[in-house]
Amino acid sequence: MRKDGTFALEIMRWQALMRKQTETKLRDLLLFGKPGALASTLLRLIAMEGEQVGETYRLAKRPSDGEFGQLIGAPRETVNRMFSQWKKEGVISMTPKEIIIHDAQYLRDLCHCEGCPAGVCRI
Prior knowledge:
By secondary structure, this protein is of the alpha+beta class. Helices cover 59% and strands 11% of the residues. A four-stranded antiparallel β-sheet has the order 1-2-4-3. Strand 3 and strand 4 form a beta hairpin. The chain is elongated. It starts with a helix and ends in a 13-residue tail after the last helix. The model has no long low-confidence stretch (mean pLDDT 85).
């Protein structure tokens, strides 16, 4: 790194990006509770793999409730209850293979989404 300033600069940028990703995930988990953390996780998945269809977003690869629970530090049952509530409210709909987000703004409001760039808004 001493000999190649460009390489050192890229390493520093990468470290800053990783720190920002970690900070935003921790913020979502600690400040906005389990619903905010789950909403943030869904928004991050949309940013990474989502397909926009009109006003809705489609996630073709649906993680299990247990996998979502591991990402947000909650039991599978808690994730299932939050998804059930959001389905009743018309925020999302699900099949065994996909999740369709009908009201992304509702999720953004839950986790106080700041509209992070794609490099930060990742799982």
